[in-house]
Design the sequence.
C-alpha cells in the first residue's frame, strides 16, 4: 500500500515537473519568435538559423563536457534524422514569422499534434481512432479561419499563400521531429538530443549564407543572441517535458506558446487579434485536445 502511494506521489511530482517544463518551453519559444520577427526582414533566415545553431552548440557542448556525457549518443542515425527534420522545421517557422503576424504563424504551427498522430499511424503503424478524422477537419478549419484576415488585409495574395504553406510544412516537420524526440528520449540524454540539432543545422545553412550574407548591426546582434538563448531554453524544456509526460499531453500543454505569442504580438508589434484568429486558434486547440485523447489508448483501426 505504501509502495503504491509512494509511486503515485512520484508520478504526480513528475507530471508537475513536466507541466512546468512545457510552460517554460512555450514562453521561451514565444520570445524566440519575437526576436525572429524583429530581425527577420533585415537578416536572411539562413543566417539566423546558423547563428542560433552556433550559440546552441557552444552552450550544449559546454554542459555535455561539464557533466561528462558522451555527446555522440547511441542512436546516431535517428539523432541525425531528428536534427535534419528540426532544421527544416526551423527554416520554415522562421520564414513564416517574417511574413505573417506572430499569432497567425504560431497558431498554424500548432496543427502539428494532429500531424504527429497521423504520422505515427503511417510510420509506426500505431492504432488510430475515427475521431482523428474529426480532429484533422477541425484543425484545418482553424487554419482557414486564422489565415482569413491575411487574405483580406494583404494585397500580395501570392506571398501570403506561400507563407501559409511554409508554416504548414514547418508544422509537419515539427511533428516528425517530435516523434523522433519521443523515441530517443528513452535512451538518450536530453543534452545529446539537443546537441545533434545544431550539429546538423550548421553545415546545412552554410551554403545559403555564402550566397546571401548580410553583416548584422550592433542592434541585430542583440536579437540574434536572443534567438539562440531562448531556443536553447525552449529545446531543453520541451525535451525534458516530453520525457516526463505522454506525447499527446505534452504537445497540448505546450500550446501555451500561442497565448504568449499573441500577447507579444499585441504589445510589441501592435498586431490586431481579430475574432477570426481567436476562433481559428480555438479550433486548433480543440483539434489538439482530440488528438491527445485519441493517442492515449489504442483501439481498432478505422
Sequence:
Amino acid at each position: 500500500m505504501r509502495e503504491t502511494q509512494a509511486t503515485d506521489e512520484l508520478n504526480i511530482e513528475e507530471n508537475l515537473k513536466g507541466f512546468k517544463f512545457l510552460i517554460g518551453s512555450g514562453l521561451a519559444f514565444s520570445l524566440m519568435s519575437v526576436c525572429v520577427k524583429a530581425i527577420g526582414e533585415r537578416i536572411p533566415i539562413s543566417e539566423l538559423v546558423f547563428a542560433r545553431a552556433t550559440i546552441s552548440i557552444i552552450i550544449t557542448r559546454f554542459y555535455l563536457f561539464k557533466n561528462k556525457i558522451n555527446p555522440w549518443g547511441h542512436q546516431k542515425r535517428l539523432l541525425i534524422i531528428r536534427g535534419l527534420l528540426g532544421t527544416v522545421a526551423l527554416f520554415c517557422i522562421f520564414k513564416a514569422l517574417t511574413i505573417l503576424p506572430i499569432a497567425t504563424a504560431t497558431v498554424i504551427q500548432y496543427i502539428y499534434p494532429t500531424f504527429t498522430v497521423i504520422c505515427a499511424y503511417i510510420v509506426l503503424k500505431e492504432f488510430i481512432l475515427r475521431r482523428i478524422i474529426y480532429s484533422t477537419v477541425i484543425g484545418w478549419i482553424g487554419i482557414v479561419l486564422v489565415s482569413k484576415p491575411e487574405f483580406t488585409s494583404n494585397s500580395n495574395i501570392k506571398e501570403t499563400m506561400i507563407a501559409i504553406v511554409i508554416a504548414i510544412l514547418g508544422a509537419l516537420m515539427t511533428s516528425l521531429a517530435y516523434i523522433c524526440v519521443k523515441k530517443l528520449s528513452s535512451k538518450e540524454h536530453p543534452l545529446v538530443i539537443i546537441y545533434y540539432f545544431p550539429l546538423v543545422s550548421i553545415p546545412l545553412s552554410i551554403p545559403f549564407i555564402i550566397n546571401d550574407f548580410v553583416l548584422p548591426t550592433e542592434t541585430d546582434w542583440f536579437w540574434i543572441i536572443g534567438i539562440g538563448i531562448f531556443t536553447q531554453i525552449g529545446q531543453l524544456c520541451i525535451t525534458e517535458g516530453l520525457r516526463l509526460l505522454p506525447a499527446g499531453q505534452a504537445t497540448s500543454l505546450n500550446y501555451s506558446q500561442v497565448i504568449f505569442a499573441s500577447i507579444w504580438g499585441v504589445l510589441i508589434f501592435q498586431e490586431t487579434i481579430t475574432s477570426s484568429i481567436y476562433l481559428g486558434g480555438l479550433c486548433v486547440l480543440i483539434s489538439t485536445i482530440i488528438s491527445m485523447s485519441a493517442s492515449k489508448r489504442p483501439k481498432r483501426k478505422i
